[in-house]
Each structure stands twice: as C-alpha cells, then as structure tokens.
Amino acid sequence: MRFDLSERERAIVELLADRSYIAVSELAAALGVSEVTIRGDLSTLENRGYLMRMRGGASPAIHRSILEHQRLHTEEKQRIAKRAAELVCDGDRIMIEAGTTTALITRYLVGKQDVQIVTNSMLAFSYSRTNPTLNLILTGGGFRRETESLVGPIAAKSLERFNARLAFVGTDGFSVARGMTTQLTEGAEIVRAMSARAEITWLVADSSKFGKVGFVSVLPLNSVHGIISDTGLSKEAIEALQAEGLEVLLT
Questions:
Q1: Is residue 124 domain-shared with residue 226, that is, in the same domain?
Q2: DSSP 96-156
Q3: pTM > 0.90
Q4: What percent of the chain has pLDDT over 70?
C-alpha cells in the first residue's frame, strides 16, 4: 500500500494508475521537478514493487483494481490493520488472506518475534519480506493480478498442511442476512480453507462493506470469531453483529 510513500512518490503512482506507460519527461513536467529527480523516484518505486522501469519512463507493476482499492478508506484500513496486528503474539502462527487491508497487517508486526505467516497475498509478501523476525510461507497457486493473490486448487490444497492460531480474512461485503460475500469464487475458497485451519478467524473489513452483497457467498458471519472494523459502523449494525455472536473491535 502507499502509506510509506512520499507525497511525490504517491503522485507518481496515481499518475500511473490509469496509464500503461508514462515518460520521465511527462512526470517531471507534471510534478515540477527535474528528470534526474524523477529517475531516482522511479528507481525507489521499482525496488518497492510499484512499477517497472521502461526505456524513457515506467509502467505500473500493480493491477489497476488494486490501486483503486488502495485509494479508498486509507486511514480506516491503517487503523484496522494495526488493531489486528495487536492480536498477534510472539511465536504466533497466523494466516493472512489476500486483500488491501489484510495485507497491511504485516506492516504492523514490527517488533513481534518469530511469527509464522502463511499467506496467498503477494502484497503481504512485499510488505513483510524485509522483516527478519517474520517467517513467511506462500501458498503457491495461480497468480491473479487483479487481487495480487495466489488462488486455485494448489493454493487451497496447500493450506491443508498448516495449522494456525489466527486467520485474518477479508471480504467484498458482509451482512447478517447474507454473511460474507465476494466477487470471485477462487477467493471464497481460500477464505474457507484458512478458516478451517485456524483456531480463531477474524474478519477484517472497513465499515463501508457492511450491507454490501457480492456475487459469491463465502461464510455465514457466525463462522468467524469476530470482526475488526472502524467506527463508521452504526449502532444498529454493531448490535446485529453481536447478536450473531461476533466480537466487534472498532478502531
């Protein structure tokens, strides 16, 4: 996610979001800095996995849909991810499902010792790869660019080999009537597999997703231990979730 970028670096990522290629000269003119400065920024962003350097410019390395999701509710997502990370203990075994909020949890595990993470999220991998105290296992499987995730039978099957204390999963929408829903069947399979292998499953979702219904049903809400969300949830929504037996943590 872009929370670790400077204002100019974020502007570059924004300009690339709707383009397949942008020239160094165009970026320099748009941002009012020299081409030398822009080349330095592009090198930094390439090292962080945001773009690919091309002759005379750059192309985005992250799918447009991911960039669009990262633009939404950024402050809420940071708070939610930080609260989720606080539930992780030294020596813990956790699973993290692909998503812009769930992946961010790994950024807040700094200071935790010997945490074992199993994930299908390439974003989580990119955020945690430089933290030596985290032991990271990727599920394998087919790579879906739209979600920066590893999915399919290989990914789902590999999760059967692991046991975790905590699983952090996301959703495209959730409601008492329809439970957790998503747009992609493959993503639903991963959530179910992680929940089955974890002692405690937390739904990690900002309040804007409450009441929304995706194409694919994932799990009923009472299949998870609780939800970590933000204070945008209404009193009625909180009471409805608690009536389903969920612990509700708000940030």
A1: yes
A2: E-SSHHHHHGGGG-TT--SEEEEE-BHHHHHHHTT-TTEEEEE---EEETTTTEEESHHHH
A3: no
A4: 94
